[in-house]
Specification:
The protein is of the alpha/beta class. Strand 8 and strand 9 form a beta hairpin. Helix 5 packs across helix 8. The two termini are about 45 Å apart.
Length: about 775
């Protein structure tokens, strides 16, 4: 759809790839400030070096432990150990990891190694922790809160005397201090004047939790049963001592748990052996006495046969009774409360693999629940799961016990009936032989019981003595040679990055705080006014630099603006260009003066009007004397020819100075002679350039605007406030100026280099003129 708005019918004449230019400008701006980046990075790297000097290095200590887990990559034990280890249990690696990380084990280690007391020695670069080379250690008997709040300075003023924060205390005695009751021990002879130490005491629970948090336990792979223990500490020797002690305590606890069942079985067998031994002695004594009193040396063949038969039956009956006793023991264990149990029941004489497997499983779960209950609450899901499993297995054991007891009871009844039958037969034997058979029979029964119990006791004792932990140390604790924290390369990289970011942040912060136009995008985002051209920053501000042989970047940019003027040319042969700005100092005089010179160089009769009647600058920049001028013409004191002055060195280029500064410039510009002056100038010159005052300060430019064909609004980088751009956009939309265009002046740093790059055929001398 066509539009009749003459101010929107054209587009910016100098097209620049804005995004590419801005990226290059931003980057090159930082490149131009490379000394600041170099200094900042150097200072940051120096800070990193000092930081590393004052940081306590941390070393990594690792150890590995093999868990013999049949459920997950079982380790093959020797057949002899398998036979002897009758109380062995299968282990889950995940459960063993939880045991290794249990509070109970770490609490014992902290207490044994006295880890809740840390010793430090002062150095040039701060204090450093020491371990093992401290002449004293102390036990905290009755601590006070002050003990955990203050650091204790330890020195040795005399032999066997310890000085703690200005108080002397004897060694190897329990003493009362401001920090509680402490006992100091000398780990070696104390020498007067030894090195001073600093002690820091932490609460036991806090120390245990910190080491548990620092301890990492994980399997080396998904299919492996090797657990890798990792601990990071400032002192490698201490880390190694902790991991080695942790493995030792874990193995000791495992052996202790395994020996509970064996110990209970041994206790049961010893009690039974003591009872049977006494009974056997009495029976043997009775046999000897009876033979002596009756003069019997041997039994008849028939009696001997009956006696052997009865002995075999009695041996079977005795074995059944022992099994029933073991079953009763198992039944009491299953039905007892968890708080009343002292260990797994004795299984001596029982050979049912299903029952033995269930008892082993429930004993294992009981021990696992006991371990877990030490560190978790009763509402823990794992603990509740274990309880459910224990109840289920106990139910199966009860059913098995009832079945086994019924079978054993039936066997006992059958054997008892056989005994009664044999006793009836024995009654037919003569009285003396019958009595001897009875006594010998009792002797055989007790002897079989005693032999059976001795065999089981030896088996249990061998298993008890050969009990080993279900784990093996693969690698003892070993520390890294180099510290893992802080990582020197990473620290230097981070500090170097900070050194790079600081100058960028300072520049970005400066830009954020700056409310002035800094780049082309600032103008494009806040206004729709076309940008006619850009002029880079020059050291020769407010000076005429256009010359026929000048091939500098600024000269080419002025020529570009001159070329773009043909797209703004009015229907008449002459063109009036009005130059204005928002505030003073935006380069109106410099750009208008050099643009006029550029037009004169191509044989265009050009005149520039110094119509900033309040603060004229053109004649001063050209080094010309002030005489009659515009103010004189407007009040009718001179003619146009009298006011015009040729500019030296340029043909067809004239200056009409402002003349004497009037007291009322705005009223003078409202005179009808202004229109007459403009008409006369149009007749004599192809281009009339008007250097007017800033529009943001006075209204002079708006009074001249009706006589101008095109308005050049100056916006200078790092000078023009951004909020004035909205005013420019309003003037453009309200059409207060004819063909309003913006010229970006004073483009600096990266933007300037962009133009040097674009016009790369210029010499280095021209490039050096840019700031």
């Amino acid at each position: 759809m066509a539009t009749n708005n003459p101010y929107t019918s054209y587009v910016p004449y100098q097209v620049v790839e804005t995004d590419q230019t801005n990226i290059r400008a931003i980057l090159l701006r930082y490149v131009r400030n490379w000394p600041w980046f170099l200094v900042s990075v150097a200072v940051a790297l120096g800070g990193a070096y000092v930081y590393l000097l004052y940081q306590q290095p941390i070393y990594r200590t690792q150890a590995s432990l093999l868990i013999k887990d049949e459920k997950k990559g079982a380790a093959d034990a020797g057949e002899l150990m398998k036979q002897l280890d009758i109380f062995g249990q299968q282990k889950l690696v995940d459960n063993e990891i939880e045991i290794l990380k249990s509070y109970t084990l770490m609490n014992k280690i902290v207490g044994d190694l006295n880890l809740d007391v840390k010793f430090f020695e002062p150095t040039t670069f701060g204090k450093r922790e020491v371990y093992g080379d401290v002449p004293i250690k102390f036990i905290i008997e009755q601590p006070k809160p002050e003990l955990y709040k203050e650091k204790l300075t330890i020195s040795f003023p005399e032999n066997n005397i310890v000085r703690i924060n200005d108080h002397n205390y004897p060694v190897n005695q329990s003493v009362e201090t401001p920090y509680g009751r402490l006992r100091f021990f000398a780990s070696r002879p104390i020498i007067k004047g030894e090195q001073q130490f600093i002690a820091q005491v932490s609460p036991r629970a806090q120390t245990v939790e910190s080491y548990l948090k620092n301890l990492k336990t994980e399997t080396t792979s998904k299919q492996s049963t090797v657990i890798l223990l990792t601990l990071e500490d400032a002192v490698p020797a201490k880390g190694e001592a902790i991991l080695n002690r942790l493995i030792d305590e874990y193995n000791s606890a495992a052996v202790e748990d395994k020996n509970k069942t064996a110990a209970n079985t041994l206790k049961f067998l010893e009690e039974r052996l003591g009872l049977v031994s006494g009974e056997l002695q009495n029976v043997e004594k009775n046999v000897a006495q009876y033979k002596t009193s009756q003069g019997i040396t041997d039994l008849s063949a028939q009696a001997q046969s009956f006696l052997q038969t009865v002995q075999q039956n009695d041996a079977q009956l005795s074995e059944v009774n022992i099994k029933l006793g073991a079953i009763d023991d198992v039944d009491r264990y299953i039905n007892s409360r968890s708080s009343e149990r002292t260990g797994a029941p004795s299984t001596a004489g029982l050979n049912d693999p299903v029952l033995l497997g269930l008892i082993t499983k429930v004993s294992e779960l009981e021990l696992e629940r006991e371990r877990l209950a030490r560190t978790t609450s009763e509402q823990n899901p794992m603990l509740q799961t274990l309880e459910s499993q224990i109840k289920s297995i106990k139910s199966n054991i009860r059913e098995n016990v009832q079945t086994t007891k019924a079978i054993l009871t039936t066997s006992k009844n059958q054997l008892t009936a056989t005994n009664r039958k044999m006793e009836g037969v024995i009654r037919s034997i003569p009285q003396k032989e019958r009595s001897l058979i009875d006594i010998s029979r009792q002797q055989a029964i007790k002897n079989d019981q005693y032999t059976f119990l001795l065999q089981k006791r030896e088996e249990t004792a061998v298993s008890y003595a050969s009990t080993i932990a279900d784990s093996r140390t693969v690698d003892a604790a070993r520390s890294s040679n180099e510290p893992v924290k802080p990582v020197g390369k990473m620290i230097f990289a981070l500090f170097g990055l900070v050194g790079l970011v600081i100058p960028v942040g300072v520049m970005a912060g400066k830009d954020a705080m700056n409310n002035r136009v800094m780049r082309r995008t600032d103008v494009e985002e806040l206004t729709n006014v076309p940008i006619l051209g850009e002029v880079v920053k020059s050291k020769d501000a407010d000076r005429l630099i256009m010359a026929p042989q000048n091939r500098s970047v600024i000269s080419e940019q002025i020529r570009t603006i001159r070329t773009n003027l043909q797209f703004l040319k009015a229907a008449s042969d002459s063109q009036v260009l009005l130059f204005t700005s928002s505030i003073s100092g935006e380069g109106k005089s410099f750009v208008s003066l050099n643009l006029g010179a550029s037009l004169a160089l191509v044989d265009r009769p050009t005149v520039i009007l110094e119509m900033d009647l309040r603060k004229p600058k053109l004649r001063e920049a050209l080094g010309m004397q002030n005489g009659v001028g515009i103010s004189n013409y407007l009040i009718g004191e001179c003619t146009l020819d009298e006011a015009l002055q040729p500019i030296p060195g340029y043909d067809n280029y004239f200056l009409m100075p402002s003349g004497p500064i009037p007291p009322n410039p705005s009223e003078l510009l409202s005179s009808p002679r202004l229109e007459q002056m403009m008409n006369e100038l149009r007749e004599r010159f192809s281009y009339v350039l008007v250097d007017s005052p800033p529009i943001g300060l006075v209204t002079d430019a708006q009074l001249i605007a009706p006589f101008a064909d095109t308005t050049m609004y100056m916006v200078r980088h790092d000078v023009t406030p951004k909020h004035y751009l909205k005013m420019i956009d309003t003037l453009y939309k309200e059409q207060r100026f004819q063909k309003l265009n913006i010229i970006l002046n004073g483009v600096g740093e990266g933007e300037a280099y962009y133009y040097s790059y674009s016009y790369g055929y210029y010499g280095e001398d021209e490039k050096k003129k840019l700031n």
